Amino acid sequence: MLTVYSCYPITKPIRSTEPAFEAEPLTVEDAKRQCGVADGNDYRDADFRRWIVSARRQVEHDAEIVFYTGTFTWKLSRFPVADWLEIPLVRPVSSITSITYPDNAGATQTWSSSEYTLKEAMSPVIELNYGFTWPAIREVVNGITVTLVAGHATVFAMPQQYIDAVILKVRSHYLTSLGEDTKGDEMAYESMIGLVGRWAAA
User: Fold this and answer.
1) 0.90 cut: is pTM over it?
2) Whole-angstrom distance, CA of residue 162 vs CA of residue 165
3) In the chain, which end has fewer C-beta atoms inside a 10 angstrom radius, N or C?
4) For 105-130, what is the mean pLDDT?
5) What is the pLDDT at residue 195?
6) Residues 136-168: tens digit of each pLDDT
7) What is the rounded (10 degree) CA torsion for 181, 187, 189, 194?
8) Distance (Å, whole) CA 110 – CA 38
9) Partners of 145 in the β-ladder
10) Omega within 30 of 0 (cis) for the link into 135
């Protein structure tokens, strides 16, 4: 289903700081074992580190999820017409840190958190509390900043399907580097991402 957002330009939340490698969903040793690389064979460890980060980012993008907890900023130009605002491409969202906006005079204001609620459904939304309206603003491109926290607290809190998808993508990178066929892994990955999306929405 195509989602039409009421705020333009359409943007997405951006992670403020990338997680340390130790927070990645897969260690180099685990990745090598999944690819059939013998223990002690470490001459490609740097490649595996790069592939793990790339694979995690790809799964986050394709499944619209966040692996490890982090702070994100989301820029908007205006508030929506509806009483709710869907937060795109990041799940789960655990909290809204702040929402700032330019008032009619152009001064930056912080919106009171008593006037809205974060709700988690198929996608997280910011919903107006009863009796409140969106703040009056001076429309400035990307003048509204939503700061939020999203992601899983630890690797152990992540659904295994996400980690399996990372493994498939890392193995695909490894096989590609050897000039081998990756069609099977790519098909399995596409299937896994589809399943992940349905499980996450359940």
Assistant:
1) no
2) 5
3) N
4) 93
5) 60
6) 999 899 999 999 999 998 888 888 999 999 999
7) 170
8) 55
9) 75, 100
10) no
